[in-house]
Amino acid sequence: MDTWKAIRGKRDTRDYEPRPIADDAQRRILQAGRMAGSSKNAQPIRLVVIRDAARKRALAACGDFTTHLPDSPLVIVIVRFDGSRPFDAGRTAQNMMLAAHELGIASCPVGIQHDERAREALGLPSDTVVAMAITFGYPRGGRAVGRGEARLPIGEYVHWEQWGGTGDGAPSA
Ligand SMILES: Cc1cc2nc3c(=O)[nH]c(=O)nc-3n(C[C@H](O)[C@H](O)[C@H](O)COP(=O)(O)O)c2cc1C
Fold this sequence. Notes:
By secondary structure, this protein is of the alpha+beta class. Helices cover 32% and strands 17% of the residues. The chain has helices at residues 3-9, 23-34, 53-60, 86-102, 115-122, 154-157, and strands spanning 45-50, 74-81, 106-110, 128-137. The chain is globular. Flavin mononucleotide binds at residues 11-12, 14, 63, 65, 108-111, 146-147, 149.
């Protein structure tokens, strides 16, 4: 799959077939996370792989928008050490989701709002925090379908040279 196609086609999908992710695909996804760059190559990210049903339910109770999480065959929790930058976790997440997308595996980031509960559910050390959980699964119906939410028009999204600058560099009226 070419990179542009992958970026455009990846939509956050929450409806998965129950079948497990193939071992080689799972390995590829984990490697994609590992290859993400980090500030000063500090590598402050660790991944917790969750496939056990009870553990998934426990993790779902740590977030506010997690209804699809227990039905996802594979959940990867991105953990970062205190003092690290959330940006590093974002790169890890997108790498894994795009690598999965190429293999026909859909995914969705899931926010974990209740830190202490998550720390307990996963047995995390006290100097770490959950950055994000990502659900993965083969999309039901064979196609990754998001909620179809549009993106901002490019003119609203991009500012040229300064805030409010238009394509010729002048602030918009
Ligand atoms: C930081 C972040 C947190 C998110 N948290 C959740 C979540 O808790 N539950 C969920 O179902 N989707 C979550 N999403 C997915 C967003 O709803 C999704 O990216 C957005 O609606 C765009 O989806 P699309 O790519 O399918 O258009 C999250 C996305 C991001 C980037």
